Fold:
Amino acid sequence: MEDQPDQVFHLAAITHLGECDKNPVAAHDTNVMGTRNVFSNMPKSAVGVLSSTCHVYGTPGDLPITEHHSTLPTGVYARSKLEAEREAVKTGRTIVIARAFHHTGPGQSVRYAVADWCQQIRTGTTTIEVGNVEVRRDYTDVRDVVNGYQLLAERGVGGESYNLCSGEAHPMSIFIEWAADGRDVRTHTALSRVRETDVEEFRGDPSKAEALGWTRTHHLRDTLVQMAK
Structure:
């Protein structure tokens, strides 16, 4: 007998920006066509949640970014995720779109900056090579984001998008300080890690998801300390 799920969570994607830029065809096949395939084959009575991204907004024109902000994605990853959103809606199924902002937590791949810094601190590195750590970013613990996915499956409106974010932006440098938790850790700025396209601040508005009852129970400082232990 075939499975008949009531809820379908689609998180599978090529998410690393550099990997998407190097392999745009694979990114399209996985992120766009994969989304179409998953939701086209979902039971018509089920509710689907698509894990999308804040990157679909592109360079912010206004802060905080609400779900009504224009979508002007730059880069292969961002464009593929916006196209995935559209393909999901076109299936005619009940799909709720979760636009998760930056998030991290225990077990994240060290291909991502914050997890990489935490691992270096954990292994005793005293000088960490970084890019521009004065840009301000809105980060949330991944466990709170996952709880947001579940809430959207239960209470979200099909075809609607919801930001999952903290609503606060901090300079990336403070994340290193929090992770170090009193240890003497210094940074060295490497030009190869500085992105010319980095915007000064990227911050979302979680009000729409909060109106459904979403709350965050993990303080990011505690998350980073845990990751760097």
Summary: DSSP finds eight helices and eleven strands in the chain. The chain has a mean pLDDT of 96. The longest helix spans residues 24-40. Helices lie at 17-22, 24-40, 76-90, 113-122, 142-155, 172-180, 207-210, 220-228.
